[in-house]
Amino acid sequence: MSLVKQIRMVALTGNEAIAYAVKQANVDVIAAYPITPQTIIVERLSKYVADGELEAAFIQAESEHSALSICIGAALTGARTFTSTASQGLALMHEVLHIASSMRAPIVMAVANRALNSPLNIHCDHSDIMNARDTGWIHLFANNVQQAYDLTLIAFRLSEDLDVLLPTSINLDGFILTHSVEPVEVLPDEDVRNFLGENRYPYEIDFNKPLAYGVMALPDTYMEFRKQLYEVLKSAPRIYDEIAEEYAKISGRRYGKLLPYFTEDAEVIVIALGSSVETLKYVAKRLRREGLKAGVLGITMYRPFPEEELVEILSKAKVVVVMDRAYSYGGVGGPLYTDVLSTLYKNDLKITIADFIYGLGGRDFKISDAEEIFKKAFRALEKGSFDQDIYWWGVKE
Amino acid sequence: MSQQVEKFFNGVRDIPLEDYFTPGHRLCAGCGPAIAMKLIMKAIKMPTIVVNATGCVEVSTSMFPYVSWRVPWVHVAFENAAAVASGIVEALKILNRKRGKQMHDVIAIAGDGGTFDIGLQALSGALERNHKMLFICYDNEAYMNTGVQRSGATPTGAATTTSPAGKIIPGKQERKKDLIGIVVAHKIPYAATASISHPIDLMNKVRKALNIDGATLIHVLTPCTLGWRYPPSQTVKIARLAVETGYFPIYEVEDGRVKINIRLSKFKPIEEFIKIQGRFKHLLQPENERILDYLKKQIEENWSRLLKLEETGIRI
After folding, report:
1. Topology of the domain comprising A258-392
2. Do B48 and A57 touch (CB under 8 A)?
């Protein structure tokens, strides 16, 4: 990879971009288990370690459950720690996800978003991460390969911030981003070093300062522990803003918690997570040329949910479309839809809204899909309502 | 003649006064695991980190805001003590290299559920990766923390709340897993059994294991007054009878070679071990003789296998 050091713009897949960022972050411990479409991240990392380009312990665990357990042990010992997974692997980790956040272990994990069984499917949707939504992690979503690289670096800084100390997931759409080659502007190693600094985890496991980690709490104290998690996730967005601003200074790329596109005066706003945001932006730009007031809202920070910013942007819209690449079965809609709906209700905003369930198991989300969805939204703008609240988009009948 | 373990502690006089597992914990009166913890923590070298799986010892020694451990102590979940310990060991190594962080011994402690059953996969992974750590299984032969349910370590015939001594099915019908056999199949440098009735042997094994550069495991038999149903004053006596009747052989496997540490010139009858425990009471009824015989056969088979392995020096 000596070429990368000399040229700042390189062609990388999403997986390679993340592996490269992790290497630049001079991570100490990597523990993972192979699963498609994430595997290339850890393949690259193991090569960096084997070639002496990265001084780190690379541990291939015998399961994702153990991989994340290894990460907790390593992070609490003071190591900068990384893992990555997808789909079933993330589901197998589920128990440990909750523990990682409540033990305040600053772990960074890439999730190559992939559908859950059954039927078996290795392609993209967000069912895996939505199942892990309420685990107390910070969840960031990349819309393209550049963002996957940038957010990985931001994630280490955010997780290790002394006022945060939480695990962070960086989500990138399986295959669509993990395997697509894009031009990526990488930072010089020195800039990354300066931006991240040393991991200063203050409670590292050490005999000279013996502490107990993961104790038992009875009903008289348990809620106070959980309230701490609630509080820290409340304050994390403010710290994210500061870090993102600092990152913008060194990289020229600014990542708000939300990425609004033509939303300022938009009558119709489509909200989405992941790579579809780029497709929607492309179509919105075309619609603007036709004089239609179309806007797109990408969400970078999905948890903690950027409620205030969302209200500010949506308050001026007349129609909102929520794109959900997952569903809450038996619930009132997709996970993002219920988040948006509750936010609107809490803030007395009565806006015409519908939920579009799309792209499950990797079904393509094409430009024509984005065009039709916008078309439906503008029709709802005229009529004052959608003809249904939940659309299963593109399903063969 | 018995082949004793390498001696770091020659007798009770050598046992350090210093306690790293301290009084005030909430384990039962007459708790076998509590005795094991005290002895293990008297055998440690400095500095040490303990990783604990969910279980009796974990819940009874870490009730917020109190803790019974004077060393760093980590609990994450039930099945992953070996994985968490792996992470700590490897983090210490890399941080020692990168910024001189002090090296520590790492001991993972789990009950039989966290070792034989739910923890077996994580244990297998850690043993295969051969991290320098000591894994100690305190075996009280059932899920005692949740109220005495059968485990893969429960012996044939024992009654538990999920293998009750019923009219048709008199207790657990299956065999106890051969933990040392499973562990040794990973070709780790050292594995041993020990009993709280033989404290010096246990402590020497802990120290010996900690001196080995690789994954090691000690399987300690720790009677449970509630689960085995006997008076709390009898814990050590029952542990001793388990050894003297041949029920729980005390041996070690170093680089694949078996060495029996407590050889018996004469086996006490198994009935002596069985008759004082409520969990086995029904085995003495004539209609259950078959199960008792099966248990006896298991003991005989196990001993003849161990003796043969020791005699021939065949590496397992």
Report:
1. Rossmann fold (3.40.50)
2. no
